[in-house]
Amino acid sequence: MNQLEAPRIYIVGAGFAGRSIAEEIRAKGVLGTVVAFLDDEPGKIGSKIHGVPVLGPISDVVRLLSRTPADEAIIAIPSASRERLRELYFLLKQAGFAKIRILPDIAQIVEGMAHLVQTRDIDPQDLLGRSPVAVGLKKSLAWLRGKRVIVTGAGGSIGSELSRQLLSAGVERLYLLGHGENSIYQIDRELRILQAGGVGESTAIVPVIGELKDRDYVSFILKRLRANVIFHTAAYKHVPMMEANTVAAIENNVFGTLNLAEAAIKAGVQRFVLVSTDKAVNPLCVYGASKLLSERIVLDAQAKAAEGQDFMTVRFGNVLGSRGSILPLFMRQVAQGGPVTVTDPAATRYFMTIPEACSLVLKTGGVGQGGQSYLLDMGEPILIRELAEQVIRFSGLEPYKDIDIQYIGLRPGERLEESLKSDEEELVATAYAKINRLERLGGAFPLAEALATLKPICIPDGAAPEAYRNRRALRAALRRFIPSVEDYSDEPEY
User: Which residues have a catalytic role annotated?
Assistant: First the structure.
């Protein structure tokens, strides 16, 4: 094939998204030629859209297509269920399409808008888990119009997706705050490419490199930025890594959150939304304990906040495809020929796609009340073993035949299954789909005492130099206030 040959493109779905993509390809001219729409709706089949025929039903016509090696397929049905996407993907693969792209799911598409720059190669996270809820992003984002918004950890999986969706919110300024130069550079560049491709509005994007552990810096930068809203996603979160670096986990996740919340109160931030995790429920691992303490810090901040300031937390389980999650690991293991490693055949987790979780976080930030904790409805838990099998099949291989699955046992800080709430919390339904409120039933948590005990371990204190970076002292302190944290007899002192 001539390298300069423009691809012939089949667009699966002749709805608003498919038509938008086709019009953009036609207008730009150099991206390829749309040769047909594929659709199942009888009223569309046989018609033409701007001269392009609509063929169908998809399952029948896709096998009959006269194709070249350069042909591409774009699935442009953002409301399609996971089951339907899986069916379409395997139909297109069997028909010989080597390149299959997809528009992001409905949670990422602002009503009436879809752009070619949003398409990307399909991967397992698009096909696994339950179908996402349709959030109605345009309405959910309305409260952010004209605001200055900070996303901490903007280069991470959750932070970067929040930032993508915030492009369509009409915010005045979007501050991408993080301490990783490369990850902030990447999301900054990606957002500008999306804007150039017509996504979102004329938001000013401002990358900010900084360290939340630096109390003076955080206080300074929040006064300078004059933000109205903060979405706090920054955290160290790899469980085994944090079990080996426990002091760093508490220093960053707990005292970084404390610095940010205190500075936000002083700077007059109107809304502060902490993104939390189900690992904060009766935590075994230090990461989970750090997130539990972070939740307490944010809820405690509400009592110190001025009128018109709202501090809240949003908790959810695992998200498919996040950095450090099992899905990218499984994909790498399959690409290397296996085996795929699973901790235990009975291990389960709750899963949600990153776009859906972020859409619900953005919605909760607008409808939530200060001093409250919210829990996203994660649906039913999924067996990790079944997830591994689906990833193998996505790659065109058979589990246990082409790629083996090995069970390696639970690692430190891990459990067979996660709980989304503790026995001391009660779920209260809200008026909003997939968003529940957590009502605490237990007594007050001694947050000030816990922080005072942990502080000299994380931050040098001349009065207690022996405590600094002492891992045994840290775990003992955590277990004093959070007894569920695992105890290790072989914990090194430093």
Answer: 279
